[in-house]
Structures are given as C-alpha cells and as structure tokens.
Structure prediction request, 135 residues.
Amino acid sequence: MKVKVSRKAHFNAAHRLFRPEWDDAKNLAVFGKCSNPKYHGHNYDLVVSVTGAIDITTGFVIDLKVLKDLIRSEIEDPFDHKNLNEEVAEFAELNPTTENIAVVIWQKLRPNIDPEHELEVVLYETPRNFLTYSG
Ligand code: NI
Prediction:
C-alpha cells in the first residue's frame, strides 16, 4: 500500500529566457515577453509529492515537517526573491524555463528523499500554466 504525501510551497523570482547568441528580436520571437532584457518576475507555486509505504512505527510516509524544512532550505531560501539567471548557479548557463526549474528542483530534492520513495514536482509559473516532473 502506497500513499502520496504532498506539500505546497511558493517563491517569487525574476528571470529572462534568452539565447545569448541571438539578438533581441529573435529572442522576442521565440520566448515572447519572457525574453525581456530587463527581466520580470513570476509567482511560482510548487507542489512536492513523496509516494511510499506507510512506516509501521511512525504511521508516516514522510514527516511533513521534514519535507517542509527540506523545501525551505533547498528551494525557497536559494530561489525566493532572486534573479534566477544571475543569482542561482544552476541557471548560469541554463535557460530558467518552467521545465528547467522543475528539473533543477527535483534534482536538488532527490538526494534528500528516501531512495525507496517516489518524488514528484509540480511547478506553476502562473495559475494556468504548470508542469510535472518525476524523474
Ligand atoms: Ni517569464
């Protein structure tokens, strides 16, 4: 019997989507408003889910306090109110699309989760635009 346990989190961050070898016009054509050279922000909503068996001793799949603290230290502290392109090392050479942000989040969390548990990240860039990565 497996149970999926989820924790919601949130961060605000600035980004710019662009290819440095392209001019502003081509970046605008491909990336739209998200190519703005002066950057812009998004309110990201994050749902992190851990799926696994219920521990017989504790009755938990994962202690939600542990998951909350992990998301705070690995994701919210380094990402919140940051310019992702300029202040978060993972995006120095990687376009901070929602896709890439979700994969980076998953990669940062995965080593800290029990290997027997499944990890899923759902990232909302807007209330209507969101995606899922589970490795
Ligand atoms: Ni954007």
Observations:
- Residues 15, 34, 40, 42 surround nickel (II) ion (CB under 6 Å).
